[in-house]
């Protein structure tokens, strides 16, 4: 029989917040002028859990659960499986509580996440090609050694710990009426939704909770439609922190009962959001943590008042960040690939470069070839990769080239 989620009292979540005092940071709630403008002047706030200790909100739930273990359970140590944020949260919490932690991580885990988990004092075991295989190994370890298995989201103490995020937000700005939250397994949105709705009821307010999933790993909507948690087939997404194929049982119940809407966003949306956070907010946010912002810039959030979104983490591998920035710029149409047929005579390359420069666009890369089979023998093809200020500026460059008599094919905005 599936365990039923027992809705806590608001006082219970406040007690958890008291327990976490001095352990977690009270992360900032920052305003965003750009996102506010996108929502028609309705204020948008960013809850910066990317600035949390260990770089993500996960520490809250992990510490709340581990601190509640009895002496016998503590003596056996704790074990968890994760490719990143949960691993660091468990390792840090265990160190603070003087408990041995063993963390199973997949073989391909990003080096910064691996090193951070080790630095928090955990014994890291690299087993499995993905988190599911690491999870199986962790549970087997727990069965063989008696270590307490710390789940990433499907536990009441984890849910209540994550709920302290909402209380911090509402203590700072009680006028919030919409909270947008990334969803993976559902731990964060469960805690935030329950805490926010309890707070709203106590204060005679209405509160809207919107969950955001990566479209390539969106298990919550099908589960809600089926009336129970189901496993979906996921495909690759940059938002690995929310790439979960099946929501937790307790988390499903929380979402079903407390969340108003679930939407999905594409990897392009997420990449654009990461670039936006870097440029406008000066914040480094991992792909999963940028899902809420992605939903806003994709036009999927309709505001009725003050909207807040949780930047759930900032643990992104610098190598991935480099690729994501390029992808995000392309998704925002700020990189453009042009193929231009030119007469094969001197001066044409200079002329096209002058036209592009005259539109204040920047050439990044040039490929000049005579060997494309579709070309007339008297022509060459010029491929230009240029930086623009966006789609309108890119269209302006194309028009200028066409008005100069060139045939231009617009390749993908890559």
Structural account:
The chain is α/β, with parallel strands linked by helices and 414 residues long. The chain has helices spanning 10-20, 33-38, 58-67, 71-75, 85-97, 111-119, 131-145, 156-172, 187-202, 220-226, 249-258, 267-281, 291-297, 318-331, 348-358, 391-403; strands at residues 29-31, 44-48, 78-81, 101-105, 123-126, 148-149, 176-182, 208-214, 261-265, 306-311, 335-343, 362-369, 379-387, 407-410. Helix 6 (111-119) links the parallel strand 4 and strand 5 (123-126). The longest helix has 17 residues, at 156-172. The protein is elongated, with a radius of gyration of 25 Å.
Summarize the structure.
This protein is of the alpha/beta class.
Throw out a few tags for this protein.
single chain; 414 residues; alpha/beta; Rossmann fold; Alpha-Beta Plaits; 3 domains; six-stranded mixed beta sheet; 16 helices; 14 strands
How is the topology of this model organized?
Elements: H1 10-20, E1 29-31, H2 33-38, E2 44-48, H3 58-67, H4 71-75, E3 78-81, H5 85-97, E4 101-105, H6 111-119, E5 123-126, H7 131-145, E6 148-149, H8 156-172, E7 176-182, H9 187-202, E8 208-214, H10 220-226, H11 249-258, E9 261-265, H12 267-281, H13 291-297, E10 306-311, H14 318-331, E11 335-343, H15 348-358, E12 362-369, E13 379-387, H16 391-403, E14 407-410
Structural class of the secondary elements? Answer: alpha/beta
Task: List how many beta strands DSSP finds.
Answer: 14
Task: Please give the alpha-carbon distance between the first and last residues.
Answer: 50 Å
Order of SSEs? HEHEHHEHEHEHEHEHEHHEHHEHEHEEHE
